[in-house]
Amino acid sequence: MFQNILEGFHLMLTLGNLLAVIFGVIFGVFMGAIPGLTATMGIALIIPMTYFLDPVTAFAMLLGAYKGGLFGGSIPAILINTPGTPAAAATVFDGYPMAQQGKAGKAMGIALYSSVIADAFTTICLIFIAVQLAKIALKFGPPEYATLIIFSMTIVASVSGKSLIKGLLAATVGFLFAIVGLDPMLSTPRFVFGSVYLFDGISVMAVMIGLFAISEVLIQAEQKEKKSTTYVPVSKGGATWEDLKSCLPTIARGSLIGLAIGAIPGIGGTVSSFLSYSEARRVSKHPEKFGTGVIQGVAAAESGNNAVCGGTLIPLMALGIPGNSTTAVLLGAFMIHGLSPGPALFKEHSATVYGIFAGLILANIVLMVIGSLAIKVFSPVTKLPKSVVFPITAILCTMGVYGFNSSYFELGLMLLFGVIGYLMRKYDFPLAPLVIGFVLEPIGERAIRQSLILSGGSPLIFVTRPISAFFLFLAVVSIFILSSAIKKAKSLN
Amino acid sequence: MVNDEKKKDIKIGIILLIFSVINYNIIIPYYVKGRTLSGLSPIFFPKLATIFLGIFSLTLILSRWYSIRNKKEKEDNKGKKKEVGIVSYRSYRVLITITIMSIYLILFKQIGFLWATPPMLALLMFFFGMPSFKRILFFCITTTVFLFFLFEKGLKIPLN
Question: What is the ipTM of this complex?
C-alpha cells in the first residue's frame, strides 16, 4: 500500500501536474464563489481541456476544481448572505452574522481550515478504507435511505430558532414546494398548474438564492444607505490557532458525518452540512448562540460540506457508483480517459489510481494556499457600501440562477422565493427548515415509496432491517434529547 | 409589543390553515393525479404534508392565543403608531425594489443582458442611496462588461 502511495506521488509530482492542480483549484474557488455556479458546472466546463492530458494530470485538475468549488461556496455565503452552492446554505447561518460583526476574515479563515482538514481526513479514508466503506454503503437500500431521511428531519428542531412550531411549519411548506413537478415513481404531474416549466420541479438554486440572497437584498432595501458593517482587514481579524483549536472537535464530527453521508450515494453535501451544523449545536454548551455568529457554526457547516468530497469518491472509485451530480460528471471523465471505476480499477490501473490519490492530497495543500489568497481578495467586499454590494448581488444572483439552467422561468421563481424569504424573515419564520424540507422530501418520498413497494405495503420493513432500525432508533433518541432540551430551556426562561 | 407579534403569528396561522384546507379540498384533487390514498399513490405525500400544515397552523394559533390570554400586556399606543409608520415606509421601498427587479427580469428576456443590466443596476444603486453619479457609471459598466464576458464568452452561456 505505502509503496503504491509513494509511486503515486512520484507520478504526480511534476511541474505540469502541479500547474494543473493550481488551475483546477483557482477555477473551482472562482466557480463556487459566484452564486449559482457550482463545482459540477466547473468540472463539466474543464473536461474538454483534459482530453489531451494524461489521466493523472486530468484528474488532478478536475478534483482540484471539485475541492475549490466546495470551499468557494462559503465565500458569498459569509460575505453577502448568499450560498455560492446549495451545500453552503448552512454556512450562511453563522458566517453572515460574523461578517456583519466585522469578522468576515475570521469566518472565511475557519471555513478554509475546516474545509481543508475535513477534506484531508476523508481523502485518507478514501485511500485506506475505500473498499470496506463502499461495501457498507452498498447495504443501503430504500428502507435505509428512508429512515436516514427521517432521522435527518430531526435537524429541523435544531435550526428552528426561537419557535419550534414555526420551524415545523416552514419545513412542511418546503415539503410542499419539493412535491411540485412530476411524481418520482409514476411521473404524473403534481401542482404543475398546466405549466411545462414546472415538470422538472422547482430548481434548488432558485430556492436557495431567492430565500437567502434576494430576501437579504429586500431587507437591505428597507432603508437608504447607512454604514452597516465594520471592515476588519484579514491580517488583523483572520482565524487564529485558538479559534481553530476551539473548532477541532466540531470539525472532527463534521468530517465523520460528511464521510458517512458522502459514501452513501444520492444524499449529498447539503444534507451533510445541515446534519453537521445540527450536531454541533446539539452538543454545544451554548446552543442558543448558534445563528448569531458562532465560529463553530461555520466550522461545522464547512467541514460537513467538504468532507463529502472524499466520501462521494468512495462509491465512485471503489464501485463505479456516482453519489451525486459532480461524481456523475467525474464518472464520465473516467470513461473519456479509458478508465472504468470499480473494483477492477484498483487492480488494472493501480499506478493511475494512486497518482489520483496523490493528486487529491496535493489539491488539498494547494487549496490551503489559494484559499488564503482568495480570502484576501474577497474580504474587501465588506468595505463596499451597501448601495454597491446589494444591487450587484441582485444582478449576480440573476445571472447565477440563469446560468444554472438557462431558464427565464427560474428567474421568476427566484424573485418569488425572495419575496417568500423576505416575508418569512419579517414574521420571524426560520428559513433553514424550509430548505431542509425542500432538500430531503424528494429523497425521502422516493425511498419510502420504493420500500413500501418492496414490502408489498408493509411498514414493518423499516424496523426489520438492522441499519434501518438503527436510524429509526437514532431519530427517536434525537427527538427525546431535543424535547428535553426544549423543556429545559423553557423552564430556565 | 410581544402581544403584537403573537397576534401576527395568529394571522399567519389562520392564513396557512385556510390554505391547507383549500389545498386539501380543491388544489390537490384538481392538480395532483392519483386516485387511491395509500403509501404508493402520488397523492399520498401532498395530502400528508397538507394535513401536517393544517395541524401545525392550528397549534400555532392555539399556542399564541393561549399565551395572549395568560399574559395580558399593556400596549404603548404611541410606540404602536410609530411602528406602523416605519413599516409602511419600509414596505413601500421593498415594493419598489421588487418592481425594479421584476422589470429587469422582463427586460432581460426581451432585450438581453447587455442592454437591460446597466440601467437597472444604475436605478437600484441610486435607490439604495449611492450619491455619486460617476461611481454609479463606473460600477454599471464594469459589472456588466465583467459578467458579460464571464458568462457569454467564458462559460458559453448565451445571454440573448
Answer: 0.88
